[in-house]
């Protein structure tokens, strides 16, 4: 018999599900199965599950035809489980490395009905908060088992399904199922403990409980939080049906119920102000209905006062107490803020330089009406006219001519703006004016921190590549590559987004995880790649002629990415030896990363006729179109160039160091878009032998394109313009 069956329901967790499944499947203990249930998720969760099931026989995929909710989805997984123990793990949480070794050993030695394990709350800023384990068990609980009546304090551990493993036969004999609705853990976790004859505790952190910024019910306001009441009613109905066996536990269970109700009520992110009085009234009603005849242990201090106010139904006094407490906390926060800012405020008058005056001008412009016809575009920190914003701008001029598009560029990049394109120079009064008054703000990176999001404004984040390297909050786990990033500031910028443009499902999943916020994802393909799809042979010939390339020349584009952890790094690459390997008809175009546009120091190849530095060329799409082969490393260029269905070679001389220092989302050397060379000698051999066009390389590219390029059909920019500028509904989802 399999030892542990993991049941993993999935609904809107595409950004986290891979980490969850990897954390299970990567454990040393392999006597497991994973039943992953796609609860008719509207995102790619089901596709991810199928992907894992296809490559690991321990994973079983269950796709539901309609959304049933977390509780029923767990029941469906339970019905398919065959393991001796069942572990219900949520799809956005993940296991601690190697924890399963200790879990499995404890299960095999003690055979408990329920094994409780420890957890931490994993916050977005890469910090963790310990659970109440140390308070509940101030002395190590040891390997022995117990009944709840002997240690009722065990109920003070978080009442979730994922911090406990339950013996499956015990659960089936008990007939306990998850109820539908929110707070479904309540009517499962407490009854399981009350009915168990053998409870074990493993004082080892096993679960990382993700504290999501967006999407969690604990951060969602609404009347569905009233569903906590029937879940607790179910607990007491079960106790009534079980008779004297659990009667001694009733006072402790009652105290937990009132504590839980007050916790939900006290969370301002759950119960809206207009619903709090009704919620309080229901607490009072349940207090009267379920109060044990002999009373219960009322907590001390302020919490005890709250219990007494609930018992007497004194909402006004309770509300006033809460308001006073919040006011006191707010005053303390203001005092701390004042102490931190008194110095900067005092120095402000002496620092009203030109930039300061312009910021004052910006704030004044914010008080003027938004221009309903103005759209502001920017790319790569104002480096010029390019990328996805440029493609959207061009289509908007055609489909929404009433919209006036204005570009923001650096002063040293003005010459790169095409004739007829209106622009403002960054840092000028006109720049601050358009930022303050534009209806639409479109950028492939974030606008500066001072930019304030007005309610009438629409921010469109187009991004500028499918990620290989980790981005956003995920960089916190790779501090060498992250440098001195201000992650709190990053999230403030992300919170301005209304739309996030995604090239493919993989990018959508990674953006959900790296940039958690409430924006709407437009998974439409990359607008800048439209041209790669629509460009015909005539345009390619024209571009080749502009670059001075003959039609019969074999052109290779070499475009490596930069290394944040190694400023000034240059991969070991000898252009002269490379063109020699290409043969007499070979030509090499070399393009450095845009981060090096101000400190570019091109190499000095001897054969300038056959090697050209094209780093200064504004539109990288031109380079893709003229190239017969792309050589890159970890750059997003591979995803764009794959749209053309031409050979791609990955040259990865520092792959192990790069993935360790910078962090990556997947192993591009294991799932490449073509051939892979880890040394320069290997790279030369690929071209000398023409292995870049081998059957294996062709099949790798075919698989890569099927995964990443299906949305690039030449209409991505149009889809963005119709949704964002014209307000047309998006194309309907094909998911259940």
Mean pLDDT: 92
Straight-line distance between termini:
34 Å
Number of DSSP strand runs: 22
Our estimate of the beta-strand percent is 15-25%
As residue ranges, the low-confidence spans are: 595-603
Instruction: Quickly give the structural class.
Output: alpha/beta
**Helix amount:** 25-40%
Spatial extent as radius of gyration:
30 Å
Number of discrete helical segments: 27
**Biggest beta sheet attributes:** 9 strands, mixed
- Molecular shape: globular
List keywords for this structure.
single chain; alpha/beta; 9-stranded mixed beta sheet; 27 helices; 22 strands; 15% strand; Glycerophosphate_synth; CDP-glycerol glycerophosphotransferase activity; cell membrane; CDP-glycerol glycerophosphotransferase; teichoic acid biosynthesis
Describe this structure in words.
InterPro entries: Glycerophosphate_synth (IPR007554), Glyco_trans_2-like (IPR001173), Nucleotide-diphossugar_trans (IPR029044), TagF_C (IPR043148), TagF_N (IPR043149), Teichoic_Acid_Biosynth (IPR051612). It is an enzyme of class 2 (transferase). It is found in: Cell membrane. Pfam families: Glycos_transf_2 (PF00535), Glyphos_transf (PF04464). The protein is of the alpha/beta class. 39% of the residues lie in helices and 15% in strands. It has 27 helices and 22 strands. 39% of the residues are buried. About 1% of the residues have low confidence.
Brief summary of the model shown:
The protein has 736 residues and is α/β, with parallel strands linked by helices. The chain is built from 27 helices and 22 strands. Helix 13 (354-365) packs parallel to helix 15 (429-437), helix 14 crosses helix 27 and helix 21 (575-582) runs parallel beside helix 25 (680-688).
């Amino acid at each position: 018999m399999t030892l542990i069956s993991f049941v993993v329901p999935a609904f809107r967790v595409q950004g986290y599900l891979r980490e969850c499944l990897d954390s299970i499947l990567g454990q040393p203990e392999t006597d497991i199965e994973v039943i992953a249930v796609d609860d008719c998720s509207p995102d790619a969760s089901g596709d991810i599950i199928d992907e894992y099931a296809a490559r690991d026989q321990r994973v079983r995929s269950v796709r539901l035809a309609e959304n049933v909710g977390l509780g029923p989805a767990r029941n469906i997984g339970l019905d398919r489980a065959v393991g001796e123990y069942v572990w219900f793990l949520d799809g956005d949480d993940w296991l601690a490395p190697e924890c399963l070794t200790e879990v499995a050993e404890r299960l095999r030695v003690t055979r408990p009905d329920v094994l409780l394990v420890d957890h931490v709350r994993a916050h977005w800023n890469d910090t963790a908060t310990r659970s109440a384990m140390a308070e509940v068990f101030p002395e190590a609980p040891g390997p022995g088992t117990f009944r709840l009546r002997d240690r009722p304090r065990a109920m003070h551990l978080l009442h979730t399904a994922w911090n406990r493993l339950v013996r499956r036969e015990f659960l089936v004999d008990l007939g306990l199922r998850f109820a539908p609705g929110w707070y479904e853990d309540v009517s499962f976790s407490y009854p399981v403990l009350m009915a168990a004859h053998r409870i074990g505790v493993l004082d080892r952190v096993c679960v990382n409980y993700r504290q999501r910024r967006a999407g969690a019910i604990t951060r969602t306001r609404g009347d569905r939080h009233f569903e906590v009441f029937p879940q607790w009613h179910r607990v007491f109905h079960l106790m009534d049906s079980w008779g004297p066996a659990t009667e001694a536990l009733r006072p402790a269970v009652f105290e937990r119920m009132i504590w839980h109700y007050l916790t939900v009520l006290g969370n301002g992110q759950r119960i809206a102000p207009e619903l709090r009085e009704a919620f309080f009234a229901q607490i009072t009603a349940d207090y009267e209905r379920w109060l044990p005849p002999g009373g219960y242990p009322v907590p001390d201090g302020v919490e005890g006062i709250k219990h007494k106010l609930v018992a007497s139904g004194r909402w006004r006094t309770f509300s006033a107490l809460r308001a006073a407490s919040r006011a006191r906390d707010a005053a303390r926060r203001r005092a701390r803020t004042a102490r931190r800012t008194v110095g900067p405020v005092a120095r402000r008058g002496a620092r009203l330089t030109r930039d300061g005056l312009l910021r004052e001008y910006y704030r004044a412009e914010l008080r003027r009406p938004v221009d309903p016809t103005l759209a502001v575009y920017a790319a790569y920190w104002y480096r010029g006219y390019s990328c996805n914003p440029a493609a959207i701008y061009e289509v908007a001029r055609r489909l929404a001519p009433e919209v006036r598009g204005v570009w923001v560029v650096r002063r040293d990049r003005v010459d790169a703006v095409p004739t007829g394109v209106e622009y403002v120079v960054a840092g000028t009064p006109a720049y601050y004016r358009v930022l303050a008054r534009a209806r639409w703000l479109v950028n492939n990176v974030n606008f500066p921190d001072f930019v304030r999001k007005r309610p009438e404004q629409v921010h469109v984040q187009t991004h500028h590549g499918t990620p290989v390297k980790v981005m956003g909050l995920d960089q916190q786990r790779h501090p060498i590559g992250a440098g001195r990033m201000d992650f709190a500031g990053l999230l403030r910028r992300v919170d301005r987004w209304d739309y996030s443009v995604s090239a493919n499902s993989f990018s959508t999943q990674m953006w959900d995880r790296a940039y958690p916020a409430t924006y709407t994802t437009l998974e439409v393909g990359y607008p800048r790649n439209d041209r790669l799809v629509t460009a015909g042979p005539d345009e390619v010939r024209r571009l080749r002629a502009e670059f001075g390339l003959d039609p019969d020349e074999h052109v290779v584009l070499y475009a490596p990415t930069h290394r944040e952890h190694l400023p000034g790094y240059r991969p070991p690459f000898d252009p002269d030896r490379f063109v020699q390997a290409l043969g007499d008809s070979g030509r090499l175009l070399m393009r450095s990363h845009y981060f090096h546009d101000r400190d570019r120091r091109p190499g000095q190849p001897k054969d300038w006729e056959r090697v050209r530095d094209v780093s200064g060329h504004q539109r990288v799409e031109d380079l893709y179109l003229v190239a017969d082969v792309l050589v890159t490393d970890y750059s997003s260029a591979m995803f764009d160039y794959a749209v053309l269905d031409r050979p791609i070679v990955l040259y990865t001389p520092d792959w192990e160091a790069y993935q360790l220092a910078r962090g990556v989302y997947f192993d591009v050397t294991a799932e490449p878009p073509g051939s892979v060379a880890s040394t320069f000698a290997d790279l030369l051999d690929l071209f000398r032998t023409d292995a870049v066009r081998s059957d294996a390389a062709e099949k790798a590219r075919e698989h890569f394109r099927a995964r990443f390029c299906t949305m690039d059909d030449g209409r991505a920019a149009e889809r963005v313009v119709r949704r964002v500028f014209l307000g047309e509904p998006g194309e309907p989802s094909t998911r259940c």
